[in-house]
Q: What sequence folds into this?
């Protein structure tokens, strides 16, 4: 029963693409290069991440081929972080952000030598957009590239301290680096806006002339060479402007920007951010699944006591079940929401991205990374002291998620921007989503839970739009938005939750295995119930729940957990993970032996002492 159910759940979780897109990445991580190495300092750990990144590159098709298949790129984002969170960061910056920008805007014959260098990974490519003083406002960045027609070069310069490139990988000077640098293109006395440039940072021995770098403070777990980078009148050949279809030089050597406004050209130059958000979400979902897998396997073996009983697996406690099964439900929900966003993205022509897709991807990125941050923290806590050790992975995933929350758009800013766009497009003539009648409704009824969340989303949107349109007071636009922003954030979050619940419901309907369908239905109900419980006061005040139902919510959640317990192995089996891949001692079939083997504890000498004491 378990293997059949797990196979169906795996098909759902990997959107039917596991064998063709994911399996070889899974198998690659079994290579000894990914075996744990104890006692490394941060610099050594960072150098190891570069070594592992090269191993991944050598084992797979070329980056250009991976970029041509977004599903493959998303899978690459999902797997390496399970065994080395730093390797994920290096691969995604090189493949998606930097080399992806070169492929989209610099795939020209005159750049073939540099293009091939990056495709072969002879050099790594940092992506230098964010500046110290303009973290969430890249369009206002200050690094400038001034064109010198006499030498047909750009002079790349950092005008002040706030314009230093921030967090890019520039610290290891013995690693060849050919960076994509976003800079303000100035020619003929005009500022043409922000464009990408290909700039050699390091030749593998030292930083190049005019390039300066200082390391950022040390980060827990991730020993990468993040730094501050600044340029002192660095000469960049004209050919290394990655102008794509955003402009170019005419026969007279005059730069002509493409038609359209500067904002559109900037968004075109930064268009790897959208798939990057799906890559970030893929890594988050993968870390969430691995954390729940480890925590649930450990919970089935970790013994505790109970009234009248000894040596009881801790998963038997309803308090432990509620925490871990709710985390499991959120992990499934975010995986299914992410699959939906990936399908929408891959089905849409890149030159015609509608606003609705941008909204979906942005909400998915923010919601999934926030949710998986909570999931990882819950799993770490529920593993007790064992969850603290990097050997057991979960603590490392916590460090990864802290970075993902701010990557490719800080979540709070990203979601607020998205909410503002949705509110601005609101049509007050549209039919409102009716409030579901709670009378006699089963709190585990998925259709009722979907309707409840849909109503909350619609009401929050109506409320936010009305507040923005209210002109009865004397206030600036900023004051109006500032008074609405928190309602807008809740609305955007509710939209993501509603979409995830709808994906859950659709997924249940596709399963043929009865046990898989039952397990997924229970898990979907627990996710929906946890979301309604989160805002129970709101639902009660608006008549979507009765007072009796609100009081009953905790008991209903406990009941769902008890019903879910027999399906635990099938549900985590759908993740296609294994103790051999994760190499986390507490995920092993016999965690005590695995932990002793990893630490060298309780060997013959220790045993002799114990027996004689």
A:
């Amino acid at each position: 029963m378990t293997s059949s159910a797990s196979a169906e759940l795996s098909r759902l979780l990997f959107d039917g693409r596991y064998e063709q897109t994911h399996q070889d990445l899974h198998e690659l991580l079994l290579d000894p290069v990914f075996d744990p190495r104890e006692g490394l300092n941060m610099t050594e750990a960072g150098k190891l991440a570069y070594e592992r990144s090269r191993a991944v590159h050598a084992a797979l098709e070329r980056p250009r081929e991976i970029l041509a298949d977004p599903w493959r790129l998303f899978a690459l984002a999902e797997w390496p972080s399970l065994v080395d969170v730093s390797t994920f960061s290096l691969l995604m910056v090189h493949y998606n952000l930097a080399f992806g920008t070169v492929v989209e805007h610099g795939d020209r014959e005159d750049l073939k030598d540099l293009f091939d260098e990056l495709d072969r990974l002879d050099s790594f490519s940092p992506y230098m957009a964010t500046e110290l003083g303009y973290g969430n406002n890249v369009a206002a960045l200050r690094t400038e590239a001034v064109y010198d027609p006499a030498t047909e070069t750009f002079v790349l310069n950092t005008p002040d301290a706030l314009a230093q490139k921030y967090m890019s990988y520039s610290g290891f000077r013995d690693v060849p680096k050919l960076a994509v640098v976003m800079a303000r293109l100035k020619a003929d006395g005009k500022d043409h806006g922000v464009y990408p440039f290909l700039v050699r940072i390091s030749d593998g021995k030292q930083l190049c002339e005019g390039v300066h770098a200082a390391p950022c403070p040390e980060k827990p777990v991730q020993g990468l060479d993040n730094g501050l980078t600044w340029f002192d009148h660095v000469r960049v050949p004209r050919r290394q402007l990655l102008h794509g279809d955003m402009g170019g030089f005419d026969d007279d050597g005059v730069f002509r920007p493409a038609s359209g406004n500067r904002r559109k050209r900037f968004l075109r130059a930064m268009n790897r951010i959208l798939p990057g958000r799906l890559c970030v979400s893929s890594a988050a979902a993968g870390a969430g699944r691995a954390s729940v897998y480890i925590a649930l396997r450990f919970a089935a073996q970790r013994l505790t006591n109970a009234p009248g009983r000894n040596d009881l697996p801790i998963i038997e406690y309803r308090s432990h079940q509620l925490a871990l099964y709710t985390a499991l439900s959120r992990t499934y929900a975010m995986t299914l929401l992410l699959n939906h966003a990936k399908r929408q993205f891959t089905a849409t022509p890149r030159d015609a991205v509608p606003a609705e897709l941008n909204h979906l991807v942005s909400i998915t990125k923010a919601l999934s990374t926030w949710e998986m941050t909570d999931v990882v923290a819950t799993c770490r806590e529920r593993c007790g002291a064992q969850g603290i050790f990097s050997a057991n992975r979960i603590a490392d995933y916590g460090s990864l998620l802290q970075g993902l929350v701010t990557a490719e758009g800080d979540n709070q800013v990203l979601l607020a921007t998205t909410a503002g766009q949705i509110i601005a497009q609101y049509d007050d003539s549209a039919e409102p989503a009716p409030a579901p009648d709670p009378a006699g409704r089963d709190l585990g009824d998925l259709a009722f839970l979907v309707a409840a969340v849909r109503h909350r989303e619609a009401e929050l949107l109506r409320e936010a739009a009305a507040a923005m349109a209210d002109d009865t007071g004397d206030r600036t636009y900023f004051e109006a938005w500032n008074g609405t922003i928190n309602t807008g954030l809740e609305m955007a979050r509710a939209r993501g939750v509603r979409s995830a619940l709808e994906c859950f419901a659709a997924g249940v309907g596709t399963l043929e295995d009865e046990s898989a369908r039952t397990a997924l239905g229970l898990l979907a109900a627990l996710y929906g119930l946890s979301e309604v419980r989160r805002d129970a006061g709101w639902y009660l005040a608006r008549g979507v729940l009765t007072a009796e139902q609100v009081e009953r919510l905790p008991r209903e959640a406990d009941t769902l957990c008890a019903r879910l317990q027999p399906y635990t192995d099938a549900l985590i089996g759908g993740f296609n993970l294994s103790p051999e891949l994760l190499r986390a001692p507490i995920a092993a079939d016999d965690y005590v032996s695995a932990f002793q083997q990893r630490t060298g504890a309780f060997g013959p000498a220790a045993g002799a002492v114990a027996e004689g004491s």
